[in-house]
## 1
Amino acid sequence: MNGGTQELTKTAAVKEMPLGIPDVVREALHREVEQLWAKAYAKARDLTPGGFFVLEREIREDALKVGGTVLGLALERGMGTGYQGTSVSCESCQQPARFVNHRGKTIFTLMHPVGVKRAYYYCGACGQGYFPLDERLGIVESLVSPALAEAMVRVNAEVPFERAEELLMSLSGVHYNRRDARELTEAFGERLEEEAQEEIREMFKVGKRKPTPVENPEAPERLYISPDGTTVHMEDGWKEVKVASVFTARVPVKKGEEPERQRTRYVGTTEDSQAFGRRLYVEALKQGLEKTKEVVVLADGGAWIWNEAETWLPKDRIEIIDFFHAKEKLWEVANTLYGEGSPKAALWAQRWSGVLYKRDGAAVLPALKRLRPLPRAKEEVRKVIGYFAAHRDRMRYGYFRRHGYFIGSGVTESSCKHLVGSRLKQAGMCWNKVNVQAILQVRVALLNQRWDHLWQEHLN
């Protein structure tokens, strides 16, 4: 019986093998579990104060080795080597690719490195070689299992690359190459970005609008859209990253009751405001833009924000300037007039901030216009007067509070920190446009609770 016939016979036997553990497997596992028990028992008998910590970590490492043994044996017995006969059709040119030999490979997994033997085929017509088993396992041109790759990408999305390696090793006992982890993370992010761009292109094809799946099954009472901007250090200096939170809220039933934020999703990009507007519009559609009872834009005074709102959102939307931004303007005037940190500055700012909170921006404008600043302060006061005049309809804070609206964009400022700041603005970091966008999209997938779905699509 030649090697090929033996392999085919083995594959058939594998398919017919009962679920009972084969003797050779049972013996291998028995030896490893016995060794694990003997070590744990011996050390537990002489445990010193603080020794439980050391023992637990050691047993975890040994248990992971046992898990690696189980996984390796299961792959060997359950999948064979991927041998498909003496020749198969080449995937590249469809010419016959002949079986050459079996070659080993070590796969790094969430448990322990696992060795596998794979059938290797080579096509003389096009010069391509491949391993069918690698394709079935999802490890083509990779030494990392899909589950370990997912863990690496997820950790690298949360913390800087150099810390991610140490963190994953400390928590799981898994060792990996930092450069490989970075490449995997950025590749996943680049794929997410490509898919996002394709979704946007499909949405805006002339005469062929592709509906975006709506993730929110119920019509939101209020849908808030809260854009903002922050900066990231790039190769050519500090550049703006535009972010937004899109969240639904329950309208308070009782007078004086605070509104309740329900479902929050995020958008982040280094693109210009027009591209950002399209991306934000698609996310808003997913959260129920077309069936919500009310749309609210809550943001600071950036002109680009209100321009994009005018382009993409309903005409009857509610627009609100973040109260804390407006309040900061009053403090800027007070400090310019009376000196930063002076009692007089604090008294003036607190008084008119209270009026702004209880009433509106229109009630504050006369007080600003009555000021007679020194020449050095005239320009500052003039700018603030212009700010309040331009946004007075967006500063009806007394009305907004009575009707249960959020008046502060804390959720968006928080997204600047969580989405961008905590990962992309660490000391010494410098990004290029491609990799910063990739990491942004990986973090968006995490924060938007789409991780499992998107990772599974990535594997397919």
## 2
Amino acid sequence: MSDELTGYRGEAFEVLKRASARIGDIVKVVRDGETYEGTLIPRAEYGDDKHILIKLKTGYNIGLRVSPAIAVTVIGHGAKPSFIRPPPPEQKEGLPKVAIISTGGTIASKVDYRTGAVEPALTAEDLYSIIPELSEVARIDAHVLFSEFSENLTPRHWKEIALTVANHIKSGAEGVVVCHGTDTMAYTAAALSFALQDLPVPIVLVGSQRSSDRPSSDAATNLMGATTIAAKAPFAEVVLAMHEESSDEFMLIHRGTKVRKCHTSRRDTFKSINSPPLARFNFSNQRFEILIEDYSRRKAGDGPQVRPGFEEKVGLIKFYPGMNPEIIDWFNEKRYLGLVLEGTGLGHVSRYCYEPIERAIKNGMVIGMTSQCLWGRVDMAVYYTGRDLLSFGVIPLEDMLSETALIKMMWAFGQTKDPTEVKKVMVKNIAHEVSMRRFDEGKHTEQDK
């Protein structure tokens, strides 16, 4: 395989070699009576050897299958695709100071042509330099903390993010943006909600569903919106901000403890669960619509209370019919300190799980109950199954999301190893993780139901 034809092999390589084509050349491909023109781009090593990949003038990529009748002609020469960071615009005095922290993810990624996958590559500084409009919103202090996809982040990363955010606030940041992969962004949002309390400014987590080098990318739009929110929003909470719909009209601002990713690829993947979003941001007029009256206001202050400890020996189990109850015994034998059960309906598991649950609790493990249902809250006093679990000492966790309950228990054990104190923490509403009144489910869209 030639470096001039990165990723190509077999039949596709031979066709391009005969045409003396190189990556970056403008080529005309004639196949089955149809003509295509575009830039020859690298092929993923993990792809087959029967397709030629070109980028059309529209910015979209197409793959053309090699056949005996295909004809490739070089009609222009160009440079091999690469990312060259343009110089950033000048900072303007008098604007709010906003810190942008990059942890990786699609919002800070490009396509890896070796594998055909998206990999962390573009830094927060890269994004700032290619979105000069940011200079009209805030004075940006951007740097990379990690360059990881979100599935690789752990509680140790949450701790480092929390400490970094707090340091920026103490250094004068009037808002902080955390660029993050969307897959586990809700977990990190919940973690920061507990680790950073009494905030004086907004902390905005933001991601992208499509990488920055794709024409359909939402990275620039999302980063622009998140930065504006961090600089100008009237609230001071940990929030997650993403598109309300597929169009670039509004951005919904969700509380960090009440949000879940609900779609694999849509721009409007994030939904507030059992709570309205905190606010809505209008991209066109840059205005905020506050949707919840009870929120923490932006204020003067030296910095938040920082309690970033997380205990990793806390587990989450989703109950399912036929589940082997020995799974619970495994957590007990491994000396886990806590366990969140994601039960059915109002908070139930099979009676076959009773004995290991009772053993674990007698052994000092704290066990909380959430529901697999997105909407509503657990009520373990309705049926005898729930009442039995209550008698063993299982803690009902109201309408808390199971992910949030897991993070909260990790955080609680990170502050104290006393099970009695942890139980008190789990039933105390610390970061709006429990809705104080029932959310009007009738306002959900058909897609949400």
## 3
Amino acid sequence: MLALRTKGMGSAWTTLTLHREQEMAALLGIPYEDVTQAGLFPVAHTVGTTFRPADRVASGATIHWNGW
């Protein structure tokens, strides 16, 4: 990710597509029968060059253990 940033590009790890792994494989031309997806790593050019940390909510407000 840091190397991509030096080239004006960005990326993100994603596993959201895994619940539809077979459909993503067909869409992207990934062999499905003998390949297991562990995640996708999309890469794209970024808009602008002013990167900063994202606003974060305190984890205690969003993380729950054994209940809500």
## 4
Amino acid sequence: MTAFVIEPLCVGMNAGPVDTRQTDGHPGDAGPGRRSYIGAMLMFLVTGGDRPVLVDTGPLDEDWNRQYHGCIVERPAELEPANVLARHGIELADIEIVINTHLHWDHCSNNNLFPRAKFYVQRDELVYASDPLPVHRRAYEKAPGLSPGWLDVWGRIELVDGDAEIAPGVSVVQLAGHSPGSQGVLVDGAVPYLIAGDAVNTYADWEGNETVPHLPPGVNTSLLDCYASFEKIEHLGCEVIPSHDLSLLDHGPFAGAHKA
């Protein structure tokens, strides 16, 4: 019996748009003289199978994010992907499978760090990322002076059409809405876990409110697809792991997902 472990790995702290920057602080400190954070930039490491699987690769350094995306994403040395993985006994060259939930800058900018990896992306996502609507071009780094992270590994992209198993016990589930080819990663178990990507940004979004059972992401290409994806998730019978929830920094690994 294989026991999977899913480890949320922080590779940046999002303090919001540049014009709301406060002085240095810590997560959760929103008082005077403190910087408050609105989300975490995360990778997810799935272990327990025959080889580790990495979900998303995160953003670049703070200067890049400030200049090209107008936001403050702190990434000190200890949050650089290589250092984060090393603390879990993983070298960059150990990763042979990377699943990009979608191709926005904050989920794929470090793809080129992984010299032996293949990158699993929905075909619909790559098609849209190549020629997005003007309102979405910045998210895909389809703008002057920018080269998107997925382009750096063009020859190692494996296109997926819909739902598919990527490795034993680890599958992708297409969850269109935030983008046409957004996908989650389903990890088998008695109660499976779904790494939802930006289909679900936070636990509060998934829990919704008294009138709306689940709240769609603020950035989307189709609200109809968002709600169809919510219904799909409900039918999976899984535990949902959101993409940017700050509480994941205190959660530790999701363990105990088993596959016979």
